[in-house]
Amino acid sequence: MKKHYFLLASILFLTFVLRFPSLFEPFWYGDEGIFAAVARNLNQGGVLYQTAWDNKPPMIYLTYEVIFKYFGVSMFWLRLITVVFVLATATAVYEIANQIFGKNRALFSAFIFGILTSLRLIEGNLALTEIFMILPITLAMLIALKRNFDHFSLLIAGVLFAVASLYKQVGALEAVALGIFLFFQSKNILDFIKKATVLSLGFVIPYAATIAYFAPKNLVADYIFAAYTYYRIYLGESPKYALLINILKFLPIVTAIAYGIWKKYSIIYASSERSESRSHDKLSSRQARTTSGVGVFHLILLWTAFSFLGSYFSGRTYGHYLVQATPALSVILASITLKPQINRIRSIFALTFFLPLIFLTKLLFTDFLSGGPINQIKYFQNFAQYSTGEKGVDEYNNYFDRNVNTIMALADFLKINQGYGESVYIWGDYPWLYAISDLKNPSRYVTSFHVFGVPEGQSEVIGNLVKNPPKYIIKSESSIGYFPDLEKFIAQGYTSGGFVETSEIFVKNR
User: Fold this and answer.
1) What burial class does residue 507 get, using C-beta atoms within 10 Å of its C-beta: 0-12 exposed, 13-18 middle, 19+ buried?
2) Beta strands per DSSP E along 233-389
3) What is the largest CA-CA distance in the chain?
4) Rounded CA separation 129/32 (Å)
5) What pLDDT digit, counting tens, does each position of 124-165 carry?
């Protein structure tokens, strides 16, 4: 027993070691920068979607807000808290696999999860929505499984699924997976209705609290638009072969449901046959668990199918989308045996369940999968060279993004010129600068692509700037599109203060 826990601790430690370089990354990734800028605004007394806007549900900004409030704007602490989430999820994955397969396969599942989520292969090293939302999803599955799907566990699971979907919308899909499993697992339709109602009630509670927060501020419409309506632009960006992709991404779900129906009614038929023969043979404990429905492994199949659907759901194919599938996938991979029992039903199931997942992952995420191992080696080399002094800070930063050094130089400029804590408008894609320089954003949009993506965004920004002219306006060469009204506004009230790297700084006329 002690050896077993030592192995689990070793796996968790290995996971930490793989993620260790991420603690020392610079402020570089755009989405993290947006979350940081919004969170900093909230810590300054702002209101989400009113004074700082982004197209995600609230939980990611609240998470960043809490981290920055207690630890300051720090990449080290942001990523260290992320490590805690990952290690907690790995432990939950281990517990789920242990419940179903036993300790050895449970260790393997935790190992797979730790490796997958800690490499740049699927951008698991970043502090994004997916890496935070898989913990409540995995805990929901674990609690329901541990308590044999009683009403209390389903209520808690519903709450946790809702929390996950308040990180990212597609976190709700795994709740559907559990709901379908409850149908197969329940003794009768009344039992299913009761369990489904409790699960749904738990899911509603966090959303009711969210609406209750935004309603008095007249921000419910803004919340719905930002978190859900705006998401439609992602759905309209499907790659080639959209029809084939849309069919294949639902095929594993259809297969898992069909397999569940077959298993459920095969069990009912077998039970009827045993009753008629009045056999006195006692069922094994594992068989007894399945006589009222399908076995618990079927929940893992549904979880896998729906989590991959979440990864494929939008038309975009960023590597971190695959993080959502890692907990269920880790359990599935740990279940593989070297001597599988093959029959016609299993063969058909494998073809229609696993092949679409393999094909779609390869098709949609080919850039990450083909270049991932090479990028990972270079990533570790970059960290090693920086740690040993072979690389300087600038060269180290340039490995991640050449904008990093510009952002840091702008931060230095603002610090020297008493710009920290001042109102500054950035026309470009430097959201990290708002956070690290404690800037006040005169407009709720912290990056230029949101201004063009939101209806009336340009007129809203100009109205904000006219009402509260910022001390500085920073124009980066990476801004998206030409903003003629902003050019006119600058010409009428600002003077060029020169360039910092590739960005021009305009100073408000006195």
Assistant:
1) middle
2) none
3) 97
4) 9
5) 999 999 999 999 999 999 999 999 999 999 999 999 999 999
Over residues 409-421, mean pLDDT: 95
Q: pTM for the complete prediction?
A: 0.93
- Nearest C-alpha neighbor of 81 from the set 70, 94, 93: 70
Compute the distance between CA of residue 103 and CA of residue 96 in angstroms, rounded to an integer.
Answer: 10
User: From residue 58, how far is each of 2, 53, 222, 358 by CA, in Å?
Assistant: 42, 10, 12, 32
Question: 10 Å Cβ neighbour count for 281?
Answer: 7
Can you tell me the distance from the alpha carbon of 203 to that of 159, in angstroms, rounded to the nearest whole number? 5
More confident residue, 38 or 290: 38
Contact, 159 vs 205, CB < 8 A? Answer: yes
Q: Would you mind telling me the total number of residues written for the chain in this entry?
A: 510
Distance between CA atoms of residues 470 and 31, nearest Å: 24
Alpha-helix residue ranges (DSSP H) falling in 147-241: 151-165, 173-185, 189-214, 220-224, 232-235
Q: Cβ distance 419 to 437 under 8 Å?
A: yes
Q: Sorting pLDDT into bands at 50, 70 and 90, what band is 276?
A: very low
Query: Stretch 471-486: mean pLDDT, rounded?
Result: 90
Angle at 85 between CA 77 and CA 378, to 5 degrees: 70
| CA dist., res. 72 & res. 78, Å (int) | 9
- Give the separation between CA 381 and CA 63, rounded to whole angstroms: 31
Overall average pLDDT of the 86-113 stretch: 96
**Amino acid identity for residue 34 in this structure:** I
Note every long-range contact of 157-161, with CB atoms under 8 Å and residues 24 or more positions apart, other chains counting: 157/199, 157/202, 158/198, 158/199, 158/200, 158/201, 158/202, 158/203, 158/204, 158/205, 159/202, 159/203, 159/205, 159/206, 160/136, 160/202, 161/136, 161/137, 161/202, 161/203
Helix, strand, coil distribution of the chain in percent, nearest 5: 70, 5, 25
Q: Say if residues 120 and 107 touch (Cβ distance below 8 Å).
A: no
> Encoding tokens for residue 261?
């129906």
Tell me what the mean pLDDT of segment 251-279 comes to: 72
Q: What is the mean pLDDT of the chain?
A: 90
Angle at 168 between CA 164 and CA 173, to 5 degrees: 65
Q: How many Å apart are CA 285 and CA 242, to the nearest integer?
A: 46
Task: Region of 30 please: left (phi>0), alpha (psi -120 to 50) or beta.
Answer: alpha
